[in-house]
Design goal:
The chain contains nine helices and eight strands. Strands 1, 2, 3, 4, 5, 6, 7 and 8 form an eight-stranded mixed beta sheet that branches. By secondary structure, it is of the alpha/beta class. The longest helix is centred in the middle third of the chain and has 26 residues. The protein has one domain: 2-enoyl-CoA Hydratase, Chain A, domain 1, CATH 3.90.226.10.
């Protein structure tokens, strides 16, 4: 029998945002605005939407891609007037936490890793190895500051100063975003929270980095009742990544970079 006035159950769109955040995705996925944008549009475009849940599992990565994704989440949330809840899994660290702060509330597993509000730059120096091999590095530039961070040349003091200043400016952008989004909910001094340190979910709750403990299903039911419909939104996955073989070397480097990002969290 058809009941024309039967009330539909609350509807929640669930979008997974996981992996290393980088401008170019690896063969097994990753996070950037190019990949996230159409999925965000689908999630926020659902009719009768009660909320959008973001399942976040990322060790961080590009600050620019993090900011672009976070900004688009806020734009859509305000345009559609839909609340956003971030639910962290293994980690919402660094850029992952940047994205989580785009939500109205952050819910963490007690063992999730949250925070890492800092900026990092890393690399290698091969000048001594090249000297032992008898290899001469030849570089010409138009512009005295063009060769910053060349791994095959000795590090210059002025380059270190420039890089430190750049990292400090990026760190300021990150801190300003967290202040804007978390505001009075932060329960510890900035000198403690903005050092790049990270914490597990239960401690993060005490510090005001998240708003509660739980998972997607339990939080959706707590907010909208047992009859809530949680609809996953995601790309169609290939059984075998077609871009693996042509870019095998780049794929290995991307995988190594992601492994290093997770390793910094002890995961």
């Amino acid at each position: 029998m058809w009941y024309p006035f039967r009330r539909r159950p609350p509807l929640v769109a669930l979008l997974r945002l996981e992996g290393l955040i980088a401008a170019r995705s690896g063969p097994f996925g990753g996070l950037n605005i190019a990949g996230a944008h159409p999925l965000l549009e689908r999630a926020f475009g659902m009719k009768g939407l009660s909320a959008v849940f973001l399942a976040i599992n990322s060790p961080g990565g590009s600050p620019v891609q993090s900011a672009l994704i976070a900004r688009r989440i806020r734009q859509l949330a305000e345009e559609k007037k839909v609340p956003v809840v971030a639910v962290t899994e293994d980690a919402a660290a660094s850029g992952g936490y940047w994205i989580a702060c785009a939500a109205d509330d952050i819910i963490a597993d007690p063992a999730s890793i949250l925070g890492s509000i800092g900026v990092i730059s890393s690399g290698f120096g091969f000048q001594d190895t090249m000297a032992r091999l008898g290899v001469e590095r030849r570089v010409r530039t138009a512009g005295t500051e063009k060769s910053l961070g060349d791994p095959f040349r000795p590090q210059k003091d002025e380059d270190v100063v420039r890089l430190d200043a750049l990292l400090a400016e990026l760190h300021t952008e990150f801190k300003d975003w967290v202040r804007e989004r978390r505001g009075d909910r932060l329960k510890a001094p900035e000198e403690q929270l903005f050092t790049g340190r990270f914490w597990i979910g239960r401690r993060a709750l005490e510090l005001g980095l998240c708003d509660g403990l739980g998972d997607v299903r339990s939080e959706a039911k707590r907010r909208f009742g047992d009859k809530v419909r949680v609809v996953p939104i995601g790309p169609r996955r290939r059984r075998f990544p077609l871009n693996l073989l042509p870019g095998a070397a780049a794929s290995v480097l991307t995988a190594a970079e992601e492994r290093a990002a997770w390793a910094r969290l002890g995961l």
